[in-house]
Every structure is written in structure tokens, then in C-alpha cells.
């Protein structure tokens, strides 16, 4: 009996989605709740599980297409089809299919092409994707370990050597990259961006971190949330009728992905200790990278923190995440020589940057807020805030 696979409602404000990839090929079998396809919206990318076990007998929407919520994407046959499968992507194609599912692979066209180019036997490659699916990274890792498998004849080799390499390569834009580009340009056009920098001594934080497996980030989140109690204007947004002060502090944490950026939200950050903030931030980041976030988890943020120091960066001028009025950047914490009480001392130091909307706050307010964040990070008795 066929089951319709439809574009799900991925959040209250989301009206459409883009098919990034079918994780099961036409005719392939999928188990209930196993990843069937990857969908991307303007807010999140995630894998959609199959509502039932069966065979993907009819594909109606191809990869790269954007369709409204409720559109039928494909059909799943929960019984063993007797003849073949219909793929309506680019026309009607019928091919024989093993009713038992034997011999049906789970390789994407890109993986098959990469394996063909390098002579890789995909049956010998261990898959790390959803449900054991072989990804391009798995094939590349196999090549890196064992070297290319492709055998070339002298004629093929001479032909390859004679062919000039292309001077350019066009990399198609993903839906996420297009959305990021549009939002970054729009944010610069909307807000009057100004950036201020502060240097922070993380000695006190470093002492508490030892033996607890904590990074610097949850301490920064905690200090920022506390400072917002002193300067609630930082937890606001611009409105046509005035400035909208937010009563709840929901901290967005920027997470870098292979092909973009997501900002999942730690809700009620001011009500949580450092350990709880660390657990939630780490969980959100992991699920963002594995595309297991729900749309609600990337909505409703009132302030954003981006930890660019994780890759060694010292300074950054991040772009404000609309409709918020500020974003805080955290640089790498490094031991540096500083002047302390007229003597040279070595301390773990890091730079914090605040990009703020000059329409809403002035430099003096931004600097007082950052001074309070610095004060909390340097002087707090962190044992009382864990």
C-alpha cells in the first residue's frame, strides 16, 4: 500500500523547503524512522525520517527543487512491489527492482561518480552516514588511506597529461548559502554597525575549568546573561514604533557547519548555571552539525554569541543577527605577557568584540555593558555559579 511522503511543516513561519538530497535511491528500501531525505529551509537543514518501512517506488520532486509545505515529494510502497519503480525526476524511468531489496545500494549519484573516477569499490568502503550510508567523505578518506584505485593505460595517462586543467570551477550555491548571503547583506543595510573590543583576563575562569572539562564559552554566556540584567537594552530589537525590550534572555550560539552557519538558541540563559549552559550549548552544536535540530530550536534568539576563537582567531567584527541589536564575538584565549601592578605577568588573555546597532545604543552604553561582562568574567566566584 503506497504512503505519500510530503514536505513537512518545519516551523510556524516556514512555508517551503528545498530538497537537498534523497538519502535512499529510487527503488531502495528504507526502515521506519530511518533518514529518507535531507531538507533545507531558510532557518535549518535536517534529515526527514521515513514514516514507514518500505520501498521508494516513486520520486516526484528532484534534488535542488523548492516546494511549499504539504507538497507530495515521493511515494513509499510498504509492500514488496512486483515490477519496478517510477522515477519522475526529469521524465519517466522504469527499471527492474529486486522485490526482496537485495542488490539495492544506498549510494548517491555524487558518491557513485567519485568512486567511478578513482576506481573505488564501494562495497569495500565503510559508511558513516545515516543508516550506514556511504558519503563522499568516506570515499575521500578511503583514497587518502589507500591511494587511488583507478588503473590508467599509457594512452589514458598521456591524454590526461595533455588536457589542460580548467582555470575556474563553478560551485553551485546551496539554499543555505543563498540565505546566509541575503541575510548578511540585509543586516548590513538595516543596522548601523559599530564594533568595540575589550581584553579579558581569563585566569579565574581557567582555574575553575581545570578538571571539569569545560570550555570558556559557557562562562562567557553566563557573564553576558548577567550583564544584560544591568543593561536590558542589549536584549532588545528595533521596531517601527520604538525599541522592543525582551523580558526573556534567549542566547543564540553560532555553530559553523561544512556548508554554512546555524544559530541554535539556549533558552532562559540567565536562569542556568555554567555546567547546564555547557551541556545545552554542546548538545545544540552537535545536533546542528548532524542536522537533527528542530526548527523551533533556531528561532526566538534575543542575543547572539559567536566563538570564532575556536579556530584560533583573535579578533572579529561579526554581523548582527537580525532582528537583534548586538552580537558578541569570543576570540582565542592565549597566554600573553601583560603589565600587572607595574610588573610583567603571564596570563590567559582573550579579546571580546561587540558589534552593535548604533540606532539603538551609543558607544558609551556598549562599553559599559562590555565592562560589566569583563568584570563578571574576571572577578566572579565561579564556584557559586556552576
Please identify, by name, the CATH architecture of the largest domain. Answer: 2-Layer Sandwich
Number of domains: 3
What is the chain-wise order of helices and strands? EEEEEEEEEEHHHHEHHEEEEEEHEEEEH
Structural class: alpha+beta
CATH class placement of the largest domain: Alpha Beta
Tell me how many strands there are: 21
Give the radius of gyration: 26 Å
In CATH, the topology of the largest domain is named Chloramphenicol Acetyltransferase
Describe the structure.
β15 (255-257) and β16 form a beta hairpin. Helices cover 26% and strands 28% of the residues. The N and C termini lie far apart (54 Å). The strands form five sheets. Strands 11, 14, 17, 18, 19, 20 and 21 form a seven-stranded mixed sheet that branches. Strands 1, 3, 6, 8, 9 and 10 form a six-stranded mixed sheet that branches. The chain is of the alpha+beta class and 386 residues long. It contains eight helices and 21 strands. The protein folds into three domains: 2-104, Beta Barrel (OB fold (Dihydrolipoamide Acetyltransferase, E2P)), CATH 2.40.50.100; 112-152, Dihydrolipoamide Transferase (Irregular); 175-384, Chloramphenicol Acetyltransferase.
Amino acid at each position: 500500500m503506497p504512503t505519500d511522503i510530503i514536505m513537512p511543516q518545519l516551523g510556524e513561519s516556514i512555508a517551503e523547503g528545498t530538497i537537498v538530497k534523497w538519502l535512499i535511491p529510487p527503488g531502495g528500501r528504507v526502515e521506519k524512522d530511518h533518514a529518507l531525505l535531507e531538507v533545507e529551509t531558510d532557518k535549518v537543514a535536517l534529515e526527514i525520517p521515513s514514516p514507514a518501512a518500505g520501498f521508494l517506488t516513486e520520486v516526484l520532486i528532484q534534488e535542488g527543487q523548492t516546494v511549499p509545505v504539504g507538497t507530495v515529494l515521493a511515494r513509499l510502497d510498504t509492500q514488496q512491489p512486483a515490477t519496478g519503480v517510477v522515477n519522475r525526476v526529469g521524465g519517466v524511468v522504469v527499471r527492474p527492482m529486486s522485490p526482496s531489496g537485495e542488490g539495492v545500494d544506498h549510494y548517491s549519484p555524487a558518491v557513485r561518480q567519485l568512486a567511478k573516477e578513482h576506481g573505488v569499490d564501494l562495497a569495500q568502503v565503510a559508511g558513516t552516514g545515516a543508516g550506514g550510508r556511504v558519503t563522499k567523505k568516506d570515499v575521500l578518506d578511503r583514497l587518502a588511506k589507500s591511494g587511488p584505485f583507478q588503473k590508467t593505460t599509457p594512452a589514458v595517462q598521456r591524454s590526461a597529461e595533455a588536457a589542460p586543467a580548467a582555470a575556474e570551477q563553478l560551485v553551485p550555491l546551496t539554499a543555505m548559502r543563498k540565505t546566509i548571503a541575503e541575510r548578511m547583506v540585509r543586516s548590513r543595510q538595516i543596522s548601523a554597525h559599530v564594533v568595540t573590543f575589550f581584553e579579558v583576563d581569563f585566569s579565574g575562569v581557567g582555574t575553575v575549568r581545570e578538571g571539569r572539562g569545560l570550555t570558556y564559552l559557557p562562562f562567557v554566556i553566563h557573564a553576558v546573561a548577567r550583564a544584560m540584567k544591568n543593561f536590558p537594552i542589549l536584549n532588545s530589537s528595533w521596531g517601527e514604533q520604538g525599541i522592543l525590550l525582551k523580558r526573556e534572555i534567549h542566547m543564540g550560539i553560532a555553530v559553523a557547519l561544512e556548508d554554512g552557519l546555524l544559530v541554535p538558541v539556549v533558552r532562559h540563559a540567565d536562569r542556568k548555571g555554567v555546567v547546564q549552559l555547557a551541556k545545552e550549548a554542546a548538545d545544540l552544536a552537535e545536533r546542528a552539525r548532524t542536522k537533527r535540530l528542530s526548527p523551533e530550536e533556531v528561532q526566538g534568539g534575543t542575543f547572539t554569541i559567536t566563538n570564532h576563537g575556536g579556530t584560533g582567531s583573535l579578533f572579529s567584527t561579526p554581523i548582527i543577527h537580525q532582528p537583534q541589536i548586538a552580537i558578541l564575538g569570543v576570540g582565542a584565549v592565549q597566554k600573553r605577557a601583560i603589565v600587572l601592578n607595574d610588573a610583567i605577568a603571564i596570563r590567559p588573555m582573550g579579546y571580546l568584540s561587540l558589534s552593535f546597532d548604533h540606532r539603538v545604543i551609543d558607544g558609551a552604553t556598549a562599553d559599559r555593558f562590555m565592562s560589566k561582562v569583563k568584570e563578571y568574567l574576571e572577578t566572579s566566584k565561579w564556584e557559586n555559579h556552576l
